[in-house]
Amino acid sequence: MKQQDTRHKTQDTRHKTQDTNGDYFPTRAFRLLLSAFCFLLAACTSNTALPTPDATAYLATRVAEALSAMPSAAPATLTVPASPTPTTPQTATPSQTATVTLTPSATLTPTETATITPTPRPTPLLSSFPLPPTNLGGVSHFYFGNPIGEGYSAFIGSAYRYGSIGPGQRFAPHHGVDFSSPEGAPLIAVAAGTIYYAGNDLEKQFGPQPDFYGNLVVIQLAQTWGAHVVYALYGHMDQVLVQTGQIVNQGDLLGTVGATGVALGPHPHLEARIDAPESYWDTRNPELWLYPGPGYGTLAVRVVNANQRYLPGVRVALLCGDGAARYMDTYWYNGVNPDNEYGENAAMMNLPAGYCNLEATILGTLVQERVYLTAGEVAFVELKGE
C-alpha cells in the first residue's frame, strides 16, 4: 500500500480494494469461492447459501443484489414481476446510438468508499427546491460511454448515488457517482472531446474547497446538447496521463483510479456538468447520461407531494425481474440539480429490461407503482403523496 498524503485529507487511512489484478472470471474454483465469500461479507447480504462454483451463475444471481447495499430480502409488499413484452411501452427514444461493454467484476469496492467528509443531515425547506416541470418523461441523452477500462467493474454502488447522503445518512449530498473499480484501474474517456483541465484542484478549484477532487480530469464533450455544453469530470485519480487542451476519442486512456483529494479510499468518481465546468453547483445525475449496458435500461423517478413539491430523502425500493433488491433515495438538497429533460429527483441505470415494481412511503402512506423498462432506453415514473 502506498504512503498516503494527509495534508488536505479529512481521513487518516485508506483501504485498498481487494483484487487489484483486474481478473474478470477467476480461473480456479478455489479463487471463485473465496471471492464470493468475501464479496458477500462486504455487501452485508442475507444468510443465503454460497453459489456453486460457476462464474456465470454467480454474476447473474449475486452481483446486482450485493451492489444494492441492502439485504437480499425485498420488502414484503414487493414481488418479483413477470416480464411480458407490452404492446406499446411508454419509454423515451435514445438520442444517439452507442456501443458500451458492461463488465461486472466478482470483487467490488466496498460501499463505504465515499467521496466526501461526513456532515450533518441536510434538512432543506421544500420551498427551496424548484418546482418540477409539467412534463412527465423526456428524450434520453446517453452521451457517456463506460468510464472504466475493459476488465473492470462498471457498476455504480447504490449506497451513495447522486444526491444521496450515503450509508447511515452520514455524508454530504453526492454530486456524482462512484464506481467499484480498484486503485490503479484505467480510466477512459466517456466520449470524444477536448481536455478542459488535467491536473490537481489545488491549482484550479472544482469543488467546495481546494483539493476536494485531488487529481482530476475534465472533458469538454465534442457533442453539444442543444445549446448546452456538456462536461465529464473524473475525481480522486491517482495518475493523470493527459494534458489540458488535448483531443481525445471515446475510450482513450485518461489516467488511473486513486484516492487523492477528499476520499476514504480508492474509487472512480464521475460527474456530469452542464455549461459551467468549474461549478460544483451545475451538476446533473450521471446515470441519465451513461449509456446502460446490453439488456439494461434506465429509470428516472419523481417523488412529490400533493402540491407538486419535490420530497427529499424518500427511499424508493425496487424489485425487478432478476429478483435483486435495489433502492434509491431522492435528492437530499437543492445543491444538486434535476435533469433538464426529466425533472427527476432520483434515477438508476442498469436495471434489467422488463417490469419493475416500486414502492415508497410518502408522508406516511405506502405508494406502489409498476414500470416497464426497455433495454437502452429511459423509463419515467412519478410517485405522489397525498
**β content, as a range?**
25-35%
Mean pLDDT: 77
Can you tell me the CATH superfamily of the domain at 141-288?
Answer: Glucose Permease (Domain IIA)
Helical segment tally? 2
Under the CATH scheme, which architecture of the domain at 141-288 would be assigned? Distorted Sandwich
Oligomer: single chain
**CATH class type of the domain at 141-288:** Mainly Beta
Ends: how far apart? Answer: 53 Å
Principal-axis shape equals globular
Radius of gyration: 20 Å
Strand/helix succession: HHEEEEEEEEEEEEEEEE
Secondary-structure-based class equals: mainly beta
Helix residue percentage: under 10%
DSSP strand count: 16
Ranges where pLDDT stays below 50 over 5 or more residues in a row are: 1-72, 85-120
Largest sheet: 9 strands, antiparallel
CATH topology of the domain at 141-288: Glucose Permease (Domain IIA)
Provide structural commentary.
The chain is mainly β and 386 residues long. Among the domains are: 29-67; 141-288, Glucose Permease (Domain IIA), CATH 2.70.70. Helix content is 7%, strand content 25%. The protein contains two helices and 16 strands. Strands 1, 2, 3, 4, 5, 6, 7, 8 and 9 form a nine-stranded antiparallel β-sheet that branches. Strands 12-11-14-15 form a four-stranded antiparallel β-sheet. Helix 1 runs parallel beside helix 2 (55-67). The longest helix is centred in the first third of the chain and has 15 residues, at 29-43. It is globular. 49% of the residues are buried.
